[in-house]
């Protein structure tokens, strides 16, 4: 994670401008200025057998505060991005930036029904947080969201702002959106718009497993700064070939990730993926504070 530093000309409130970019990266931002032109989609099936065993043990010891697979994903991905800072970069205004903090976002249904409202949630774990604190924060946010069947938001929240804009006449709405997109390009959108918006986080997650759906490809957005979109499928049993060659039925979950290829390269992305796989195989790492290194050997 990038350390907070003295702001220089060209920096943004949430990130500093990376000035030692390679020539190819600079050219790519001009040849392919839109994020949706530079998407790389990765699909990975994670062996979650050890993680499932660990979850069963922890939840049996504290059934009132259950930890879910989604909580583990949020924590594991946060740790990965913290240790792999290039994954916390974004390109906007044709410049490369690196965030100061690692943030994640997801959408929660107020109830499982077609006509139920949705709420946007943003999480910024602290250095001292472990899986237990992350799970507690997510449970608390979701619980508060689901107390009401319908959203009750103020005009200063992102949901309130969206609802307010949607009520404008179409010509006026188009004009306002154009202004917002222009300010977004230059990094001058007010915090009241960007704070709480999942388009401005490090990791945007979609927990499709919670509605019994497989992971899918999900596009990035040209608006905002999000460069990593992750979809999580359903936990299921699958036959896998183990290292010694024998076959075994394991607990697995398929994950899809869409990344802006301009922030790094395939080798860096692959190593980052290996760290998440390693955490799933060694779930005790989830109990370590996020500010501590995992100790994973990337060789």
Write a structural description.
With 299 residues, this protein is of the alpha+beta class. It has one domain (32-150, 197-287): 2-Layer Sandwich (Chloramphenicol Acetyltransferase), CATH 3.30.559.10. It has helices at 23-31, 49-61, 69-83, 131-145, 158-166, 170-186, 191-194, 266-281; strands spanning 15-17, 39-47, 89-92, 95-99, 104-109, 118-123, 203-207, 228-232, 236-241, 247-260. The strands form two sheets. Strands 2, 5, 6, 7, 8, 9 and 10 form a seven-stranded mixed sheet that branches. Strand 5 (104-109) and strand 6 (118-123) form a beta hairpin. The longest helix is centred in the middle third of the chain and has 17 residues, at 170-186. The model has no long low-confidence stretch (mean pLDDT 89).
Secondary structure elements and pairings:
Elements lengths: L14 E3 L5 H9 L7 E9 L1 H13 L7 H15 L5 E4 L2 E5 L4 E6 L8 E6 L7 H15 L12 H9 L3 H17 L4 H4 L8 E5 L20 E5 L3 E6 L5 E14 L5 H16 L18
Parallel strand pairs: 5-7, 7-8
Antiparallel strand pairs: 1-4, 2-10, 3-4, 5-6, 8-10, 9-10
Helix pairs in contact: 3-4, 3-8
Q: Note the quaternary state here.
A: single chain
Main CATH class: Alpha Beta
Low-confidence stretches: none
- Mean pLDDT over all positions: 89
Compute the number of structural domains.
Answer: 1
> Main beta sheet: strand number and arrangement?
7 strands, mixed
The level of helicity is 25-40%
Distance from first to last alpha carbon: 21 Å
CATH topology: Chloramphenicol Acetyltransferase
